[in-house]
Design a protein that fits this description.
The protein has 13 helices and 11 strands. It is an alpha/beta fold. The strands form 2 sheets. Strands 2-1-3-10-4-11 form a 6-stranded mixed β-sheet, with helices on both faces. A 5-stranded mixed β-sheet has the order 7-6-8-5-9, sandwiched between helices. β1, α2 and β2 form a beta-alpha-beta unit. It is globular.
Length: 320
């Protein structure tokens, strides 16, 4: 771990020439995004070069990104496609995670099967990923999109709406899913049924690749260093992660167990090389989004990813 700290401090030293601008990155309360916040808490970032900012929900994150008050954000792949459709030239520079059960459709006790959703109120965030998961669940049940009453709620209101029975089912994500499960919620459908469809990426404005390459490398290296620290010194960093997510150790571990956390080599396969995997996944997802009415027209996906921010595969913080 000494090598990790030394390398992080080296990355924080100011470079020659004109100083790079501050790189601000926004995320919401999602387990997969937490390693950049952990890196910040551990002092692995130069605060004059990199700043991770937590937003209440995905809607606020997207608003900040669109307004230009941040240079990058943690986004689901479908959110990245949607904002590119709106004209923002964003590039994915890191795959944080792949959801493997972390996004789920939870039901109250009176809803025992997907078919029981007919005519029920279903809560969900006004985001593409929530709509995609609900539509996939309805297709499995043989239900049409208008067979349920959609109630749009920010993620911060999911648990309260659940507790007050304002909805009979809700599309949510960790750690809210665990909290509902602890209160008797039934998991009807989750992202394990949609492999490769729900990815979380770090997306930055394209100009960052050229205006702030050192800050970007520091940000990405910090993510891997913090992930390495979690795996190798879990007891030491669990309190920091648990406090941020509001979860005790057992629930924190359960939350991360529903995510695939790609290492540097896997990230390079997703983002770089002659045929990166991410654009191919994005093309399939973009077609599904258009078929579901979430997009009005095809979205250009050229230059969707870059591996410029990834550390060397043999760097200490790159090991998983």
């Amino acid at each position: 771990m000494q090598a990790v700290g030394a390398l992080a401090l080296t990355a924080a030293l100011p470079g020659c020439g004109r100083p790079e601008p501050l790189l601000r990155v926004a995320t919401n309360r999602w387990a997969g995004y937490q390693f950049i916040h952990l890196a910040q808490d551990l002092g692995l970032y130069d605060p004059l070069r990199v700043r991770a900012i937590e937003m209440p929900n995905a809607t606020d994150t997207l608003r900040a990104l669109t307004a230009g008050t941040v240079e990058g954000a943690g986004l689901t792949l479908d959110e990245l496609i949607s904002v590119r459709a709106d004209g923002l030239d964003l590039v994915a520079v890191l795959v944080f995670d792949e959801s493997a059960g972390a996004d789920a459709l939870m039901a109250q006790a009176e809803v025992q099967t997907l078919a029981d959703l007919r005519g029920r109120r279903v809560g969900l965030e006004a985001s593409p990923v929530a709509g995609l998961l609900l539509d996939a669940a309805l297709r499995v049940a043989g239900l049409a999109p208008d067979d349920v009453q959609r109630v749009y709620l920010p993620a911060t209101e999911h648990l309260l709406a659940w507790q007050k029975n304002k909805v009979q089912a809700i599309v949510s994500y960790e750690p809210y899913v665990q909290e509902m499960s602890a209160q008797g919620g039934l998991r009807l459908f989750d992202s394990r049924e949609m492999p490769g469809a729900i990815l979380d990426v770090l997306a930055v404005h394209r100009r960052v690749l050229h205006s702030n390459p050192q800050g970007l490398r520091q940000l990405v290296s910090g993510h891997f260093a913090a992930m390495h620290r979690y795996r190798e010194q879990r007891a030491a960093v669990e309190p920091l992660l648990g406090a941020r997510l509001g979860l005790p150790p057992v629930q924190l571990a359960a939350s991360f167990s529903t995510l695939k956390l790609p290492d540097v080599a896997t990230n390079r396969a997703w983002l770089g090389g002659a045929q990166p995997l991410l654009p191919s996944s994005a093309m399939s997802l973009e077609r599904s989004m258009r078929a579901s009415g979430l997009l009005r027209a095809p979205v250009p996906l050229e230059g969707l990813s870059s591996d410029i921010g990834l550390p060397a595969a043999n760097a200490p913080e790159a090991r998983s």
